[in-house]
Amino acid sequence: MKTEKHDAIVLSSSDEKEILKNFIQHFKNAPLPDDEMLSNLGLFLSSKSLSRILFFYEIYKKIIHSHGIIAEFGVRWGQTLSIMSVLRGIFEPFNRHRKIVGFDTFEGFKGMSEKDGKRCQCGNGSFSVSQGYENYLENILDIQEKLNPMAHIKRYELVKGDAVETVPAYLKKHPETIISLSIFDFDIYAPTKAALEAIKPHLCKGSILVFDELCDDIFPGETVALNETLGLNNVRVQRFPMTSRISYLVIE
Ligand SMILES: C[S@@+](CC[C@H](N)C(=O)[O-])C[C@H]1O[C@@H](n2cnc3c(N)ncnc32)[C@H](O)[C@@H]1O
Asked: What's the pLDDT at 10?
């Protein structure tokens, strides 16, 4: 159930894990030349990995006509931030206000409590990344922006540290913030609740909140945090058919 390094959870069956190991070997040993590698990344997609990209494609289309930034709460290796940057390049390359801001300790979970239950068998530090990973991710996001117009204006920010402190501090420093899209993927209660409380005054009608773990018995804390802040009775939790785990709601 856990990855060999970094204590992350994998729900694949043992057969699937064997197939994926084989896939990874083919990926690492790909005989493609360097100058054809990135344009052929589709070779290495699976229906599961593509479904996540399609989810965010659908969500991005929903925010195009609303003003404000994209915030991700729980970045880890940063693939969702990277997908958002690419979608911004496709749909609104000249929208300089569509900043993308990612919050993470870059040292794994921080602030686990009894509201997170026992099923995940995680602790503080689970879902960590390699040391200094945020520098590598900055390089990737810089490259993404350089491949699009207005590359001279940096339109992303990584905020490192415990979100219980960093999210309120960021919003205090940037009182002009309107949140068009928030992506919640801390998995656990304390930072999710703190971030939800902090962003409330920065939401407008039409703002979208995405959640990775609602109604998830392995990570109950995310649902508890939503219930305690916005109230489950007050929101319409929706989904798309291609992903089972990710859901979203629109502030009405
Ligand atoms: C499941 S991962 C996020 C995955 C990511 N959204 C993606 O698309 O691949 C959860 C992340 O939440 C972060 N996290 C957990 N508790 C945190 C806290 N108190 N403050 C900041 N980040 C935290 C962890 O470091 C981890 O990177």
From this structure: 77
Q: Report the nearest atom of ligand 1 relative to the CA of 191.
A: 19
- The CATH number given to whatever domain includes residue 220 is 3.40.50.150
- Do the Cβ atoms of 225 and 200 come closer than 8 Å? no
Same domain, 176 and 224: yes
Ligand 1 pocket residue status of 145, Cβ below 6 Å: no
What domain range is 21 assigned to? 1-44
- How much distance in Å is there from the Cα of 102 to the middle of ligand 1? 10
Say yes or no: 200 and 234 in one domain.
yes
In this prediction, residue 30 carries a pLDDT of 97
**157 has pLDDT over 80:** yes
User: Ligand 1 atom closest to Cα of 106?
Assistant: 25
> In the chain, how many domains are there?
2
Cα-to-centroid distance, 106 and ligand 1 (Å): 8
Q: Count of H helices and E strands in the chain?
A: 8, 6
Fill in the DSSP letter of residue 143.
H
Please determine, for residue 7, whether its predicted confidence score (pLDDT) is greater than 90.
no
Query: Coil, strand or helix: which one is 185?
Result: coil
For residue 219, name the pLDDT band (cuts at 50, 70, 90).
Answer: very high
pTM over 0.90: yes
Cβ(248)–Cβ(210) below 8 Å: yes
Ligand 1 in contact with 221 (CB < 6 A)?
no
For a ligand 1 pocket test, name from 76, 81, 243 the mutation site with the most ligand atoms within 8 angstroms of its C-beta: 76
78 lies in the same domain as 194: yes
Whether residue 56 contacts residue 212, with contact meaning beta carbons closer than 8 Å, is answered with no
